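Quick start: read one record
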Amino acid sequence: MASDFDRRRFLKAASAAGLVGLAGCSGGPSGDGSDGSDGNTSDGSNGSDGSDGSDGSDGSDGSDGSDGSDGSDGSDVPATVGIVYSDGGLGDNSFNDAAKQGILDAEEEFGIEYAESEPDGTGEFGQYQQRYANSTDPDYDLVSCIGFNQGDALTETAPQFPDQDFMVVDTAVDEPNVANYLFREHEGSFLMGVLAGNLTETDFSAGAGATAPDSTNVGFIGGVDSPVIRRFQAGFEAGVDYASDDVDVTTSYVGSYADPSGGQEQALSMYQSGADIVYHAAGATGVGVFQAAQDEGRFAFGVDQDQSVTEDSFADVILASMVKRVDTAVYESISNVIDDNHQGGESVFLGLESNGVECVYGQEIGDQVPDDIVTAVADAREEIIAGNIDVPETTSN
């Protein structure tokens, strides 16, 4: 069953600086998963009594400062959440950090406790999912699974724990205890394509970048080749084509969300071949795209968060970002569990109409985009919402 996204509160994502020093310890449950001893929940402190350890050490039970319940009996905690991040982990200033922001928003709003895990690879997803589900101290009200590549593991895990609520982002698992949050990345990426297709044919400079109006080429760089990232590519290509018949899109996949040097190498190749704007959907790999844009005096588009904020050292070349409200999905799933309204067995779709995806202009140079191009992007948005533009979800190759 599909349901429309209903956002009760629209929370702006914090800057990268806002993520530093806030409560929440990496690791998640360890051992046999029965006690959640390593899965540090968070209330803003490090020890069971609000200090750095109740016995003057670094943790009252010899662990890393928590007994898995943050020193609380849970009686006044509305929910305890375990979150398993996608590969690439925290610090990407993109997809995983957006999910973390949703947890922080829920912590601030509701007073939840949480534990978080950063698997080293896809083979560990099921392990962490099951450890949270098995834990009884604390008992996790919700296990949040971030990323399409958790789908296979969750398909096996969810039926084994029918009383455990799960949520997953970017894929659908057909189980009654799993709430699925799917984004219409192709819609937001279409707007990025309209922006790129119009701008590349314009003599334009801002910050450290400039277009090459005699060029008819822009670029797209993906992380791991997958149906999700193909939606980004498909929408971008369609948007460029909508803006101009004369502009081509060069595409490339690095094969990783955590390879900035690979992103830089591929972006340099595109810029040096005539592209003046490159859009990435590649997590931390995209930092290399931004570096290449600075090196070549060209422009780049960010993804997932406003990367002119989260990667502010590159704000002079980041014209816009395709913001994907992963934070909103995480926050809402927690809110639903607190309200005893978990959307298990349902799929929630987040697109332009619900502000689940957005084209956000860069904070330093975005306001310099010509008004007629800003209008063209805004008009395309309205046409998509009205159903007058059907944006493809798959690429032609």
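The first strand starts at residue 2 and ends at 4.
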